[in-house]
Specification:
single chain; eight-stranded mixed β-sheet
Length: 405
């Protein structure tokens, strides 16, 4: 069986979804499927040494055929350019599929966002008779409307019509939590029999094989600091200005450091806020490789997860899983609808708050800092919960069922 996996991002780009796509492709290959990945040329979220490297359009990586398409899309472009880029993506990808794939395609799995990319699933289904499976990570256009990115009613209607068509044409849809599944059923009228909740997974081997050291603490000059780590995308959906406001309120505790590792369209704005407030307790660092990140997570004292309170969908940050696998406690500052609150409560691995009151959040940060004796147990709880719910085998078995039947 030949499976085509479609994702806007794939390694060497450093994003949680990139690594998940790679792990999915390689696991399907190990299970006996022929796998082709079609993705965009890497442009952002790269380590310094890879940022100037060029990548072949067609390559074979660990037995996976990878097609990389040169696109207009760039994550720091303004929203108008990004919107136009995303609309033409499926046509650019489809042209490369016709160029490089001559044999039958049995299944196509498309990961959204961006939603327009799922049009590719419809086109491949029609041409090859392939089964079309759609995995929804962010619920677009709802998230863009909530964040004020889409304000024009014409654009809302355009993307909502596209969304309905894609949901109708997909053979199966997966959402990464039960709350997201329910949202799509009740708010978007997706038939319940068509959609299934399958958690994103975490590769525990990456974390279990690494011993905790102080190497990155030493590199960053944070040997004696109490580190609250946020690692990943710094964009409007994360609402990380809230973290800067918290840092301002706890600035007198000089032992606390907010370590923000990553990049995105909002990073410059946050750096300007830190400079304006003259904060010494916030440190920005570039992205780390897939192998270095688990080491950093293990060296942190607490993992921070943040989503803007403007969000109205139940999505939760994928970085929560990495923190759990690292056995560190979590402080999550999320919109009230996020399924992250439920997950943290069930796992008993830390605390969560609605991201709407920086004073209240600052008090929580101080509580965590002053109750260090609880942190080890929180970390163990999170690890055990993730092992039971987010292991790659458990999630992959559920996904394979949808591919085969």
């Amino acid at each position: 069986m030949h499976i085509v996996l479609v994702s806007i991002t794939y390694p060497p780009e450093i994003r949680a979804i990139s690594f998940m796509m790679q792990e999915l492709a390689e696991e399907l290959s190990l299970r006996g499927y022929k796998v082709t990945v079609i993705t965009s040329q890497p442009k952002t979220y790269l380590t310094d040494e890879l940022s100037q490297k060029s990548f072949k359009e067609l390559s074979v990586e660990n037995g996976i055929q990878v097609i990389r398409v040169k696109t207009l899309l760039f994550h720091k472009d303004n929203y108008l350019i990004r919107g136009i880029s995303e609309i033409i993506l499926p046509f650019q990808f489809y042209a490369k599929i016709k160029k490089h794939i001559k044999e039958k395609i049995d299944s196509i799995i498309v990961y959204s966002p961006p939603l327009p990319l799922a049009i590719l699933g419809i086109k491949v289904k029609k041409r090859f008779g392939a089964k079309f499976l759609l995995n929804i990570q962010d619920i677009f256009p709802q998230n863009a409307i909530d964040l004020g990115i889409i304000k024009n009613r014409f654009l809302e209607n355009f993307f909502e019509r596209m969304e309905k068509k894609i949901y109708r044409k997909a053979d199966n849809i997966t959402a990464h939590s039960e709350y997201n599944r329910n949202f799509l059923i009740h708010k978007k009228q997706v038939p319940a029999k068509k959609i299934r909740s399958i958690y994103n997974w975490i590769d525990f081997n990456l974390y279990n094989e690494i011993e905790k050291t102080s190497a990155l603490r030493t590199r960053y000059g944070l040997e004696n600091k109490f580190i609250f780590l946020h690692a990943g995308i710094i964009g409007p959906a994360q609402g990380m200005d809230f973290i800067i406001k918290i840092a301002k309120e706890v600035r007198e505790i000089t032992n606390i450091c907010f370590l923000l590792v990553g990049d995105g369209s909002e990073r410059q704005k946050l750096e300007e806020m830190v400079e304006t407030y003259n904060l010494k307790n916030v440190l920005f660092k570039p992205l780390l490789s897939k192998l270095e990140y688990p080491l950093l997570a293990k060296e942190a004292d607490v993992g921070l997860a943040c989503l803007s309170r403007k969000n109205r969908t139940p999505v939760y940050p994928g970085k929560i899983l990495g923190y759990m696998a690292s056995s560190i406690p979590i402080v999550a500052l999320l919109n009230k609808e996020s399924d992250g609150h439920r997950i943290i409560q069930q796992a008993q691995c830390g605390y969560s708050l609605i991201a709407n009151n920086s004073n209240k959040a600052a008090k929580l940060i101080l509580k965590v800092y002053n109750e260090k004796e609880n942190l080890e147990q929180f970390g163990r709880n999170g690890y055990n919960y993730a092992k039971a719910n987010f292991s790659k085998k458990i999630c992959m078995d559920k996904l394979e069922e949808l591919i085969k039947y």
